[in-house]
Amino acid sequence: MARPPEELETAEIFEQHHDFVWRSLAHLGVPRPVVDDATQDVFMVVHRRLEDYRRDMPMRSWLYGIARRVAYR
Closest Cα to residue 60, out of 33, 42, 48, 40? Predict the structure, then answer.
């Protein structure tokens, strides 16, 4: 059973949502040769900002917002 978001660690979030983030970045137009690096950038932000995650918000929505900002860069 999955743990509630407030108990998640960055590594668990990575394991559970890596594919979603990768596909989101590709869909947002990040060139294939740099999608892996952009995915890593997203999870670096997650690691730094996990305490800012609003628990009433779906995790994927939060991750997509981060991915959007990374893709825009």
Answer: 42
